[in-house]
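Quick question: what would this complex look like in 3D?
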Amino acid sequence: EAQVTQNPRYLITVTGKKLTVTCSQNMNHEYMSWYRQDPGLGLRQIYYSMNVEVTDKGDVPEGYKVSRKEKRNFPLILESPSPNQTSLYFCASSPLGGPAGNTIYFGEGSWLTVV
Amino acid sequence: AQKVTQAQTEISVVEKEDVTLDCVYETRDTTYYLFWYKQPPSGELVFLIRRNSFDEQNEISGRYSWNFQKSTSSFNFTITASQVVDSAVYFCALSGNTNAGKSTFGDGTTLTVKP
């Protein structure tokens, strides 16, 4: 089954404790991206990757890191989480060329709470 | 810069009523793509439609229809004979060819359909 898998789905962590949210897709997609969703603000793009070893900042990259060492994985790293990073996070993928012209496939979301 | 505005924050209708969700966009790209997504209470994001800037034909899919008007930079979504299962948050999104990796979402419209 074609899917985008995120882990963990739910996490409560403490300020400053580094964490990684993993994202994996099994569709051989070149493009992957991370979004955060906050009440009343829709989805905002954090980082995206057009292909392996290529990453670019989205609209809200501060406080996050990503890497794209292999095609199927695109982990989101919070080096020193803060309470303002409490949010619902979505990973997404699409074929070559990204969302411009392709359907985006989303993971189920990861609820992250930083206390 | 690109922008998507969904001016309606919340809409409430009674079952079987028709409802239109508005989406207005801004972009400097001449080639761009517009999307609608549904987020039911369970939280996942469901792709509904993608439309490119060269195709202004309206589209109908069952009870759903979309009206794309470049002259007013709008891509509105109508649900005919609404049902309780249509209750969800609906997002309009935009991606342009100049920066194919970036996608911009509106803040979403929460639709409540009452029995």
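Answer marked as accepted. The radius of gyration of chain B is 14 Å.
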